[in-house]
Amino acid sequence: MSNQLYALAEQLGQAIRASSDFQQLQQAYEAVRRDETAYRIFTNFRDLQMRLHEKQMTGVEILPEEVEQAQKAMALVQQNEKLAQLMALEQRMSMVMADVQQIAMKPLEELYRLFTE
């Protein structure tokens, strides 16, 4: 049975790659990669995001200067048309993936609900 689930998960992965949402996101990444300025802004923003996320996960205080730096980086991202489009497409894909996860988790949620009633 679990082999069947893995096979279905592989099919889901293929379906995601073939979806228009994913294709558009991939094209947006490629457009950013080809634009030196957009790519530099993007990599700086992602690096900063990762450092702040790591601090947050390890319980290290995020300094006000770091918050300000993140806000400035986000403003740069939003001012760049290619990056703004990329962020919007990332958000849309993230929502799709959250919906897919919710659907996949529904059987377990139903089981837990029955168990606790």
UniProtKB/TrEMBL annotation:
Taxonomy, superkingdom: Bacteria
Family stated for the protein in its record: Belongs to the UPF0342 family.
HAMAP family hit by this protein: UPF0342 (MF_01526)
Protein name: UPF0342 protein BCV53_06700
Organism: Parageobacillus thermoglucosidasius (Geobacillus thermoglucosidasius)
